[in-house]
Fold:
Amino acid sequence: EPEVTQTPSHQVTQMGQEVILRCVPISNHLYFYWYRQILGQKVEFLVSFYNNEISEKSEIFDDQFSVERPDGSNFTLKIRSTKLEDSAMYFCASSPRTSGRAQLYNEQFFGPGTRLTVL
Amino acid sequence: GEDVEQSLFLSVREGDSSVINCTYTDSSSTYLYWYKQEPGAGLQLLTYIFSNMDMKQDQRLTVLLNKKDKHLSLRIADTQTGDSAIYFCAEGEYSSASKIIFGSGTRLSIRP
Structure:
């Protein structure tokens, strides 16, 4: 069964450094998302992406964040200058325009996550 | 704003039923979801219910929705050790690019 993959599984970086988190969505999916979960807190929506542009973004997704689909298969999240509070698990998700399950219009398939640790 | 709340921990004996409860605030939500997260794995959609339904049953899983009280529950019958995981309640709208709003997750542990 196709699945969303994410690399790396764990990224450690120094405060102020740039990081790029990579995701390979399911191949025929059209919508892409990033979420994050700070340890012990809720899974929070960051951004959704469709047709090569951002559809919606949350307040968390400020100018330090950017997303890109550089080559038609990867979907990346870049954090320009990491802060301690960016330490979290980052989940990528993708969804088709319509689901294989006839009634569910917006089923999002999640990757296993990248744990980002900012020191 | 949109918010989803659920208790953080639940411990049940193997073979008993587990009931995980959730409340949400957004009355425009079309879908209510239950996601399961096992250690080291991503969020897996377990089941969902339309907001115009009261109940949905899927094998050992029963979802109950009280739209008036904005209360959602997930009942797992005959709980097994393999059901140990974190269960996330979530809500979303009927839109292709709609975000999903998650609760904090309930960690279900199974006692022998």
Remarks:
- Chain B touches chain A at residues 4, 31, 35, 40-45, 48, 50, 88, 90, 92-105 (CB under 8 Å).
